[in-house]
Each structure stands twice: as structure tokens, then as C-alpha cells.
Amino acid sequence: LSLLNGSRLYTEVREEGNAGNIFVEASDSIELNGVFENRISSIQSTLRREVNGRSGDIQINTGLLSATDGGQIFTTSNGTADTGNITINARGLVSFDGFDVDSRFISKVSTNVKGAGNSGNISITAGDLSLTNSGLISTQNFGIGNAGGIFLNVDNTVVFDGGGSEISPTPGSARSVVATAGTAGNIEVKA
Asked: Is the CB of residue 44 less than 8 Å from the CB of residue 63?
């Protein structure tokens, strides 16, 4: 499965209600690459307004997963709504690498809330995991809710690398962040 140049696989609610779940099973690989006119190549579940509801869960089963040049997997909501969880199972490498030079969108997997809701958990099971040149795993809450946990279960190597230059604004990282009054989630790494 390839999502390129701003292509998206997504569920979205613009008024009241819950966004649907996304389940992707790709026997060989999944590739998310690039941004076109500020549209991110992505798998996403989104609540657009400050409404009651929940963004959907995302579950991915594949051999290899690669997000490059701004490709993203995310759930997001506003207001009191919670975001869904993201689960990635890959037999081989899971890689988030680089960013789009024009838009500065980074390659990442994230759950984000702007308000009183809680952001979901991110769970990755993989043969290898690589976060390079600004690649990011992130659970975030920009309001007063809680940020989800990050759980990484990797058979072989985990690599975080590539930052400290004008080209790459941040190093590869995993983070759970709350902007105001909530609780940040735990990060667990087994490798």
C-alpha cells in the first residue's frame, strides 16, 4: 500500500459523533511519502470541531512500514473529545524519517488533543524501529486533558538519530507531552 504526494486514508467528523476506526492489513509494506499543497500523505482519524465524540482507532498490520518526507499516521480531536489509539504491528522495520522541506511537516505517528479530552495510546510492535531526521512518535495534549502512553516492543534494534542542523530541526524522538494541567503518559521500550 502506497500513499504518496498528499494521498490520504481517513475518517472524519465535522459536527457531532464518532469518527470511524481504520484497519489496514498490507501483507508486504505500507509507504507514506510526501506533502502536496499542505496536504499530508497520511492515515488519519479526525474530529474537526469542539464536539462530543471520539476520533477512531487506527490499527495497522504489515511487513514493513515507512513514513518519509512528512508522511504521517495520526488521530486528533478538539474540545472535550478523546482521540483513538494507534496500534502498529510489523514483522520487519517501522521507520519514520525526514520532513517535507517546504511545509516543514515531519514524518510521525501521533495522537493529539486540543482541549479537555485525552489523547490515545500508541503501541508499536516491530522487528526494528527507526526514528531519524526529525522522525517522531508523540502523544500530546495542548489543553487540560491527559496524554496517552507510548509502548514500543521491538525484537531487534531501536534507532533514534539525526538532528542538530538547519535541515533537520529536531532529532528523532518519542515523547508524551501535556501543555497545561493534565498528566503525560508513560513511555515503555522493550528491545
From this structure: no
Rounded Cα distance between 188 and 13, Å, is: 31
Tally Cβ neighbours within 10 Å of residue 119: 35
- Unique residue bearing C-alpha cell 498528566: 183
| Distance from chain centroid for Cα 114 | 15
CB 64, CB 96: distance < 8 Å? no
Query: CA dihedral defined by 71, 76, 78, 83, rounded to 10 degrees?
Result: -170
How far is Cα 43 from Cα 60, in angstroms, rounded to an integer?
10
For the stretch 142-157, pLDDT in tens is: 888 888 999 999 999 9
Q: Is the dihedral of CA 152, 150, 102, 26 positive or negative?
A: positive
Number of alpha carbons in the 13 Å side-chain half-sphere of residue 55: 35
pLDDT single digits (tens) 73-128? 999 998 788 999 999 999 999 999 988 888 889 999 999 988 788 999 999 999 99
In one letter, which amino acid is 157? T
CA 97 to chain centre: 13
